[in-house]
Amino acid sequence: MSNSFPRPVSCPAKAFLMGEYAVLRGAPAWLAAVDVRATAYAPRASFGECEAVATPIVAAATDHVRRYLTGHARTFEAPAPSVDTARFHHGGRKLGLGSSAAVAAAVVGYYLRAAGLSVDDPEIRGVALRVATAAHREVQPRGSGADVAAAVLGGILRFEAGDAVAQDWPEGLVVGLVDSGAPASTPELVKRVLGARERDPAEHDRAISRIRAASERFGSALAAPDGGPSSRLDATRHACAEHNAALRTLSALSGAPLMTPALETIVRAAEGLSVAAKPSGAAGGDLAVVFADSQASLDRLAVRLLRGHGLALLGHVQIGAPGLREEALAPLSSRVRGFFAMGVASRRQRLTEATGIPSERFDELDAGGIDLSEAAHMIENVIGGLTLPLGVATNFRINGRDYFVPMCVEESSVVAAASNAAKMVREGGGFVAHADPPWMIAQVQLVGDDRDAGEVANVARGLRSELLARADAAHPRLVSRGGGARDVEVRVLDERNVVVHVLVDCRDAMGANLINTVAEAVAPTLERATGWRCVLRILSNLSDRRITRVTARVPVTALAGPGWSGADVAERIAAASHFADCDPYRAATHNKGIMNGVDAVVLATGNDWRAIEAGAHAFACRDGQYRPLATWSVQGDELCGDMQLPTAVGVVGGLTTTHRSAKVALDLLGRPSATELGRVIAATGLASNLAALRALATDGIQRGHMSLHARTLAFGAGAIGEEVDQVAEKLVSVGEIKPERAESLLRELRGQKS
Ligand code: NAD
């Protein structure tokens, strides 16, 4: 491998599972590598990237690895790396996942790889661990070194007295991380907690011993060969309770706010749900780690926390991530200057370079994604096809990750507007999006008049376990994928109508057909037990148990434009949002602007846009008045957007895996889960809304919209090639953007040429 072309190298973040603070006194601790990665890579001049300024941790890692390489007669010639840590951020806030250790390890790995050493070789990984640990300790002398071990080795580790040993994770213990909402400074907390020992050494040591005991108990539970999931969870729950009690003592001794109200809320919410919870890391905010007996229990906690307390399970973060590794590509950046001005071939080329999708895949888009014979198998009475343009919106960053967003839409300016708004949101750190688990609703209507409807409802409620079992039996493969029936809810509609909802986790499917099967499968049980007739058995498109919530914080300075201060624009957007909140006539148009973005992504990815439309508008009306799906307010020097949207979309089933354009679109998004796709769709909706409101609240929609619309008119008038832009520019300059004017301008242009 040539030194002039170093490969990117990445390392995962870490989360402590058990044993924090006591680990600094030699006790064992358990920690997991999580798949939020820091990547060191050579800046790409062709992407307009310049050499990054080294932070203290990058400088220390560089210095230590240089000394190692030159001391071992190896070259040290690679260009100074850029280090991408965007995934460690949520909006403008950094999550407490140990970015400095991952950065140190990634930089060390980058130079080792550039010197021709394989970072997969256990011996070289050992070198990387030693060098990165020394570099990290130089910058953060109080660290245990456990986070560097997780960054290099990955997986799940037991860490004791400087030694890390890989652990197997047992079946039936599911782990999640919850964002407890506030940043915390680990070095500062550690300093205060360790310093408090001087105040009351005996009490301090007792608390540390309790954490040590909790950690050992947890370790025994993980290792127990035949304990079974419930006794393992019980032991984990006791360990968490012990750990939390010790943290409260350390908090009282040190005055450091370790168990914040949000962390206590998470611990309380977990009670009664077969879930154990404790802070992860130094506490004081940041993260909680939760342990459950199943994904279903974890999801129930997530729903309770998000809906009840606004606290989010980090659904996109998985534990047990691989450690130091070489990457085929540098981190994806969707911030591409001049994408708008490129030709189609250059755009495809750029996407190939950035995503690694082979260029031939883009050729598949030429034919529109399906041929006539495929179309004839999709619907009835086929006579042809209808192709719409597929574009890509740039600048999107969601939960610290960049996306090229595929959008299929016929209306000019929608893609440009979404890209433009995403750029403004990016200046505030990007979108933050959290999603409910993918629960859909199967409805069964019970009709009768020979019994009290309330009594019938009670009988149906009593059938909960049987209905859940029948629903699961209808989809055994869904259950084996981690989905399945989750709950039963019963409502009396009137004295002759009762409706039973069965909530089903559909995993990566949109779920309409899955749900319809469930509705039909449970109906006979309900008929038999209640004596009432089941009439309708079908999903509800008001998928309000599958909501994605997306927020954005835009610095007001990013909103400024010619003749408008950012603060003015922000105030006017907030006023426009209030207008929509008060008036359904405005709310309808406000939401149409949101659906410009939402539908375009739904369509591009082969999803059912009628289902999304039905769900969105029914949800917009949930309190009886039709309201805006997204609202905006000014908070300090930021404009803050907040949107909730039912996102019943899939990445399997329907057209998603058969339509070639939809497959390319999903590949562009990095083959997301259904939930991740929902987050992208919601963010695109919020971006479209911001763009529309900014235009409306300032110059009016016509100026920007019409200059783009002019191209459509020029094309419609028969302009080809360069003529399209020439006619469009003329239309804008004469200020008359009308079809007949486009035709006359085209005639003039051709007359001049001839
Ligand atoms: P589908 O019928 O294709 O079922 C999804 C399939 O994917 C299942 O067979 C499932 O076993 C399989 N699968 C593979 N991997 C999976 C994973 N990881 N997670 C979940 N399932 C996995 O699709 P669907 O999602 O049940 O239904 C969607 C279709 O139904 C859409 O085409 C929609 O237009 C249509 N539809 C909609 C409505 C409505 O919205 N009212 C009504 C009827 C049908």
Q: Ends: how far apart?
A: 58 Å
Please report the number of helical segments.
25
Radius of gyration: 28 Å
What is the domain tally? 4
Which structural class matches the secondary elements? alpha+beta
Number of strands: 22
What number is the mean pLDDT? 93
Q: From the coordinates shown, what is the CATH architecture of the largest domain?
A: 2-Layer Sandwich
Tell me, what's the shape? globular
Distinct small molecules? nicotinamide-adenine-dinucleotide
Helix content: 40-55%
Report the top-level CATH class of the largest domain. Alpha Beta
Quote the beta fraction: 15-25%
CATH topology of the largest domain: Ribosomal Protein S5, domain 2
Low-confidence stretches: none
Q: How can the largest sheet be summarized?
A: 6 strands, antiparallel
Please specify the SSE layout and strand pairing.
Blueprint: E1 9-18, E2 29-41, H1 56-71, E3 82-84, E4 89-90, E5 93-94, H2 99-114, H3 122-139, H4 146-153, E6 156-160, E7 163-167, E8 174-179, H5 186-195, H6 201-223, H7 228-254, H8 261-270, E9 275-280, E10 287-292, H9 295-309, E11 312-313, E12 325-326, H10 344-355, H11 359-363, H12 372-378, E13 390-398, E14 401-408, H13 414-426, E15 432-435, E16 439-447, H14 453-462, H15 464-474, H16 476-480, E17 484-494, E18 497-505, H17 512-530, E19 533-539, E20 547-555, H18 566-582, H19 584-604, H20 609-620, E21 630-635, E22 638-646, H21 660-668, H22 674-697, H23 701-716, H24 722-734, H25 739-753
Antiparallel strand pairs: 1-2, 1-12, 2-3, 2-6, 4-5, 6-7, 8-10, 8-11, 9-10, 13-14, 15-20, 16-18, 16-19, 17-18, 20-22, 21-22
Helix pairs in contact: 1-2, 1-3, 2-3, 2-4, 3-4, 5-7, 6-7, 8-9, 13-22, 15-17, 18-19, 18-22, 19-20, 19-22, 23-24, 23-25, 24-25
Bound molecules: nicotinamide-adenine-dinucleotide.
